[in-house]
Design a protein that fits this description.
The structure is a single chain. It is built from 2 helices and no strands. By secondary structure, it is mostly helical. Helix 1 packs across helix 2. The longest helix has 24 residues. The model has no long low-confidence stretch (mean pLDDT 90).
Length: 45
Amino acid sequence: MIALGSQYGVTAIYGSVIAAGLFMMVLAPVFAKLPRFFPPWSPAP
């Protein structure tokens, strides 16, 4: 973020944070379905 801000300014940082948030909101349902492929793990006694 520091390199991005020093080259493009603070508006680029704001834009990238907003874009990342929107991207994760779109992908959240996909990540929510992933745990069913990974059963609970417990160490052997």
